[in-house]
């Protein structure tokens, strides 16, 4: 017997024909939805926070360096990508997941965002521009999540991250023998 056979059905809602299904009521759907708890998200108004995050990610997607990360990698163009990368992710998927309330916990969103850089590092040359851009985008998106209760000035934060990334990169080159 399946779990669906174990559900008690209201006799007044029984279909005329036994082969027909019974529509699920709105309150039945609501009762089975996951309900967030305080430790899942740092703030109580999840819909407002989601709006801030989606707006921030949208502004990130407008940056020129975000272009290779906007949509899933084209497997026809990079056939090895599917064999090398076990968890493909992109900005439009992350944004859609926020819009559709996919993320039950903040840590799940952070996981996806970190994979932008992880995948770029795994598939590309270590010091390539795409890896650098992925790291900057990842940090930018993670900061948007950390500051999700307020507006984030994405262009300003982006320029600060690029400057600090460039200076730390030049320091590493100076230290190399």
From the N-terminal CA to the C-terminal CA, the straight-line distance is 70 Å
Mean pLDDT: 87
Shape: elongated
CATH domain class of the domain at 46-165: Mainly Alpha
Name the CATH superfamily assignment of the domain at 46-165. Answer: Bromodomain-like
- DSSP helix fraction: 40-55%
The CATH topology of the domain at 46-165 is given as Histone Acetyltransferase, Chain A
Question: What CATH architecture label of the domain at 46-165 applies?
Answer: Up-down Bundle
Q: Treating each run of at least 4 consecutive H or I residues as one helix, how many helices?
A: 7
GO biological process, one term: regulation of cell shape
Organism: Diabrotica virgifera virgifera
Keywords: Bromodomain
GO cellular component, one term: nucleus
Written description of the protein model:
The chain is mainly α and about 180 residues long. The protein has a domain at about 45-165: Bromodomain-like (Histone Acetyltransferase, Chain A, Up-down Bundle), CATH 1.20.920.10. The protein is built from seven helices and no strands. It has helices at about 25-30, 45-60, 80-85, 90-100, 105-125, 130-145, 155-175. Helix 2 (about 45-60) packs antiparallel against helix 4 and helix 6 (about 130-145) crosses helix 7. About 20% of the residues are buried.
Brief rundown of the structure:
With 177 residues, the chain is an all-alpha fold. It has helices at residues 26-32, 46-61, 81-84, 91-99, 106-123, 129-146, 154-175.
